[in-house]
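A quick aside before the break. I want you to see a complete sequence-to-structure record at least once, exactly as it would be stored in a machine-readable document. Don't worry about memorizing anything.
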Amino acid sequence: VMPEVALSFKTFTSRAVMEEAIRRLREEHGAADFDDAVDPMAALRSLVRIEPSGVRHTILSGLSYPNGMEVARHGIVYVTEQSGQRVLRVNPITGDVKVLTQGVIAEPNGLTFNTDYTALYIGGFSEVGTIYRLPVAADGNTGPLTEWAKKVGTGQLDGMAVDACGNVYIADYG
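That is the input. The structure line, written in tokens, reads:
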């Protein structure tokens, strides 16, 4: 079982590089280690849940460059789809998906919850430099998206985190 496979491919930049990596992994581990043997590229555009025992479940496939991901206290997963220009809320058990934003945040990438999980901060990789704030209720429903901080770094906003004091940290790729 290779749980790292579901997470490690998102950084490859070309289809040829990804296909070569998949070919090598299949040689080492066999095609049975992949959920989608017909289209191995689908595994690179998927949200996969891996149980502590190593059993894998593809929750959502066909995504357009999934990148940032956070899990709320109640287990709901929030995912940015960078090339798809979307932020999604996904129930990892039922597979239910709700589009929270589409086309509003240019190239949504990093995201993180505040300390009490009542808001999600989302940054884009588009050189705009805006961090957005999305209120999140205890049941997972969201409020209106607002611009929280503008002109942050070069605007190529990547990974994000919040410390115990509520400070937001962001990796600026540029």
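Two observations worth writing down. Residues 135 and 141 are 8 Å apart (CA to CA). Residues 1-13, 34-38 have pLDDT under 50 and may be disordered. We'll return to this after the break.
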